[in-house]
Design a protein that fits this description.
It comes from Chryseobacterium geocarposphaerae. The structure is a single chain. With 614 residues, the chain is α/β, with parallel strands linked by helices. Helices cover 25% and strands 20% of the residues. A 7-stranded parallel β-sheet has the order 9-8-5-2-1-11-10. A 5-stranded antiparallel β-sheet has the order 12-13-14-20-17. A hairpin with a 5-residue loop joins strand 18 and strand 19. The N terminus and C terminus are likely disordered.
Length: 614
Amino acid sequence: MKNKLTKIFLLSIIFTTSHINAQHTPSDSKKMEWFQDAKLGIFIHWGIYSVNGISESWSFFNNYINHENYMKQLNGFSASQYHPEDWVKLIKNSGAKYSVITTKHHDGVALWNSKAEKATTIPKNSLAQKDVLTPFVSELKKSGLKTGLYYSLPDWSHPYYDIMTRTEKRYDIKSDTERWQNYIKYYQTQLNELSSQYQPDLLWFDGDWEHSSAEWHAPKTLENLKKFNPSIIINSRLNNHGDYETPEQGIPVISPENEFWELCYTMNDSWGFQPFDAHYKTPNMIVRTLTDVISMGGNLLLDIGPKSDGSIPEEQIEILKNLGRWTSKHKEAVYGTRKGLPFENYKGKSSISKDGKKLFLYLEEAKDFAKIYGLHLLPISAKIIGDDTGKVNFKNDSNGNINLNFSNVKFDQDVTVVELSFNEKIKFSSVIKKEDLTLQKILEDQNTKNTTYKIAEQLYEGKNIFNNSGLTNDGLNMKIPTNLKTNQEILSWISKHAEALFETEKGLPNGHYAGMSALSKDRQTVYLFVEGVPTGPIALKGIKNGISRIRIVGEGSILNHSIYNKLYWSDRPGIIYIDIPKERLDKNMTVIAVLLDKPVELYREKVKAIENNL
């Protein structure tokens, strides 16, 4: 994939390339329907780089290994344990509806028997001595899965290509146009081969940042591809001539602007197989990433990296099997869904069915209730998907808000899904009305869990009812007025969590945390309100700061955290995962304090046609 080190060498080229949104016409909606419905695809990075377990192509481009030694891996690429039918079975059982395989990465090694001039191929040049692409595509098509082919526009090994490494070029294309035209013919020949031999449903380009649209002959390329398949879907890395956006690695904080988008994502920190990269996300994290993407209306393209013998690492198999367990249980809440409710209407992840008559809530924790605001309709039914014994009771108030109460629910180990059905299309309002809460009402409410939720909600919205109330910063010697109706359990919870309530301000904007939060007055501590019992570590996205310390408010326990997807060449922050021991959870509402190295700085990108992670 992309690497920041190319910036030094290619800065002038990059600055001449503008990022425009992918263009769409009404007819695109039909051809994009299967893609938008699919929700889950499996990416496969397989090539000679798996022999030594080093970075695909980039390891020689960045001069970590010389080109000659890199290409010697051809002699170790055996594919001796390659069983494409097992690959496809695993992919299909994961719940994926399509797969994208690297037919040729930037190193120029083609998995199929390419006849293009001076092509380097697995069948002719490797130990395997066989075409490994054709049997995989054949199995994909037999299975009913859609076929996606990754193709790198650059070929850093090819004698007709201008760029060799980040510090070396073969020639200047402006002074040797004939040689460049020979390269255009080479890559067009390969695309013609892929199109005619495999009839792909989708082409996934990469590497377009090295040249302009005109230099790549991108419009002509697209026109030619449509001759083979008028409904071909192209990702956005053909210099803005694609159909959908492709954010890479970092889960978007806010929904991309394009209706059609796909997050390409690794299970650990590597695309291809690397034996020493043990930094795998857990199966729980991957399922929750899928629901995060679904709630924003996108697809997840999850990567696997087979070994050079064609076997798939056990950690990756385990993740795919758990995905399959969850997707098969929750099919109606995955496929054909569309973007969910705004965060103002529901403080969590959700999606809406294609016909607009079903609402799916994704619960990442076991809890007693949930609240939805601003709905103009009352559901006709509510259930827990995959749990016939679970009960969901609901009632609405005069403001169009719905309270859901859960009982006897067998919560899923990863994400529990609540399905609400309506007689007509769901309508929701951005104008939300809630009851006016006073401190006295809060203190006299006898439903403690419900009250702590209301407190968190008020703080998240920047309404601090504890200002000038008699609350102290440590919860001691409080002068909060009480009476005989005061709920002493509420008072105790307030005292315990006073730090997070005293003079705190409006919480993080939507997208950074799938729950409610508040900020300290100096904006250097983020308070996270944690409902119920989380199924795994809670997640924070888009926090640019360093983390100084994380602890449980009111009882002092220091918590560990892990950061995933922080790439050294990208300014995109990694995802912060925080483990909370179940025995330390507050039965009403747990509060976590995240102390930052300075006042909070947020990353809120606007994903365009290309998510450029140079």
